[in-house]
Write a structure and sequence with these properties.
The structure is a homodimer of 245-residue chains. Chain A is α+β, with helices and mostly antiparallel strands and 245 residues long. Chain A contains 11 helices and 4 strands, in the order βαβαββααααααααα. Chains A, B: InterPro entries: Glutathione-S-Trfase_C-like (IPR010987), Glutathione-S-Trfase_C_sf (IPR036282), Glutathione_S-Trfase (IPR040079), Glutathione_S-Trfase_N (IPR004045), GST_N_Theta (IPR040075), GSTT1/2/3 (IPR043377), Thioredoxin-like_sf (IPR036249).
């Protein structure tokens, strides 16, 4: 049995960040699926691991931890094999990574999760779509992408804050942007189109963690394609409806 | 001139956390008011310090940083005088603090800030009150207080995760709970009443950082009392309206 157990679903953006981090750093981790589609995250046996009932969580030889950024910081600090660029030791460099990680919660994360939920996923979870909430979240996503594009990718270097190698902030934010895949290939491309530095940065994160970034996103791409097919068939049956997707 | 400059408004909960942290640790910090009521946080000269246009921010001898949790981590790491309990070095103890700090963004912080804005402050900033949003945020505040009460104060020790001395997480969360003062003394007491451990913990944080916790809250108490007086006079003029405040 692996010492480090991950409780994850690859459809969840912070779960993917943890999985890619472990694979890219050669950590001996066992991946345990907590199937969000089946509501396994709400079951008592999972809440014994994470009382918040969310993924991801980890069990490191009896030490339980949740909140993806706390997990990334912990793994980068506790496992000596992890290269320093993931979580710099220099207090100022680290502080800049922390700033981006904290900013993320109330900006890109809030926008992206809310947009995908209220425009695409909600019915699959038994809730109605909410176009007003989706529009507000879309505005927040665009403002967040603009901040990444103009503020954190404004220096030399392929990664956030001008680094030549990725940090845990690159991984967390990149896995959030890829969640827009749920909106469909065309809509995702349209949202990203005004932000060339963001698009280049996503390619750089994928390349730096190859082939793990791509493989960790396979489940998302497959499900997103099913949602897209459904929208297309509904759209051809009811040509006047859902014109924006 | 002090080496460390704080850009803050004591009406902002994360600003208070930074101010109390500096005072409690004897850091030589210069407090610069960024008056939220006058919109000074939106002015270009402040956005040169924090492009997000929010308080708090710090300038540590030319190193600019925003996001209050990033600032607290930075100050605790960069200033040798800060006692270790504020930000434990042990990777597991630290990870538990990080977990609470990350959880805070999307739970207590989101609920408290939204509740106070949508039930009390919005008109003062030119926006309408939003009773539906306020109710949703109140539910999130109560769920968050329950989590603190049952999950993070369930061990011996006066502070979060059973510690006998406060961490930066104690300070951040406590300064958020005190923001409920804006709802009025009675409503705040009513919201806190089911959570005895939270009430004891607030007392412990105040005591551990005395007299700085109390003095940092004076501006909040003064303004909250003005809001309360206004509500009372409006209520006596229009007895049927605003019955819940």
């Amino acid at each position: 049995m692996a010492k480090l157990r991950l409780f994850v679903d690859r459809l969840s953006q912070p779960s993917r960040a943890i999985i890619i981090f472990c694979l890219a750093n050669g950590l001996d981790a066992e991946e345990n699926l907590v199937d969000l589609g089946k509501g396994e995250h709400r079951k008592p046996e999972y809440k014994a691991i994470n009382p918040m009932g969310q993924v991801p969580a980890v069990d490191d030889d009896g030490f339980y931890l949740f909140e993806s950024h706390a997990i990334l910081r912990y793994l980068a600090s506790a496992y000596p094999n992890v290269k320093e660029h993931w979580y710099p030791v220099d207090v100022k460099k680290r502080a800049q990574i922390e700033c981006i990680l904290d900013w993320h919660h109330t900006n890109l994360r809030r926008g992206s999760a809310g947009l995908v939920m209220n425009r695409v996923i909600a019915p699959a979870l038994g809730h109605p779509l909410d176009p007003k909430a989706a529009s507000e979240c879309e505005a927040l996503v665009k403002a967040s992408l603009d901040t990444i594009n103009t503020l954190w990718l404004n220096e030399d270097g392929s990664f956030l804050k001008g680094s030549s190698e990725p940090s845990i902030a690159d991984l967390s934010l990149a896995c959030e942007v890829t969640q827009l895949q749920f909106l469909g290939e065309e809509t995702k491309a349209k949202i990203l189109s005004p932000y060339p530095k963001v698009r280049n940065w996503l390619d750089a994160v994928e390349k730096a963690t190859s082939p793990h970034f791509e493989s960790a996103h396979e489940k998302l791409r497959t499900l997103a394609a099913i949602f897209e097919q459904r929208r297309e068939s509904q759209s051809s049956e009811q040509p006047a409806a859902q014109s924006d997707l």
